[in-house]
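name: query_chain
kind: protein
chains: 1
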Amino acid sequence: MMLKKWPLLFMLGIIMLASVGWNSGVSHASYYFEYTWEKYKGTEVRNYKLTPVPGRAGFMDQEKFFAAISKTPNVYGGFSGYRTGKTTGVATKSVTDGVYKYSVTDFIRDKEPEILEYVNPIGGIPGRWNGTDDIRVFMRGSEAASLAELFYEGTPTEERYHFNANDVYLVTFRSSTVKPISEMSAEALVEEGTPTFINQELVGQIKGKDPAAYPSNGIFNGYFYIYKGSEVKEN
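structure:
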């Protein structure tokens, strides 16, 4: 959330300081305003609409694909993805104490899809992707672009998916038992609505001379701040 500049608050502060200095017979420079906020920790939640990335789906030999994806982590730095045939078309990003997590909802079961390890997929092992079901992975654009290059050999540049290196995408991979090829498609995350802050827990009070140092009421640097007011202090 962008910080508010509070121009009216500044004007009131100047008037009050001038009044204090006049009534006390001393220079107003001997006084200042101290502003107070309550600081909360918790979970910041942002919602995104999943929007198909323009371009033609890429295809690649299955064996080469398995070798390539086994070296490509998701945004958390691990090697796991969601096994699901259909999602709601909405993604959620939450952060608690600086740890980010992206998630989706399964369209049929109305809950988070099964999370599977996708490195070197082997059928029949619990928690391991079988290599044929749809698997969706939250992936940074830079990594998705590297994989796409392998899928698009011989495909004109204008027909390929194009990724922004620092953005996050939900990338879907499909493989077939009939044809030994794999397919790649991708969806961009378009933020919708206003971020919310849940599971709030009071950290303590923050005091300072700058009224614009924190939001009046809102999220800043992973914490939630509530403005409590100000008082005149003597230097």
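note: The radius of gyration is 26 Å.
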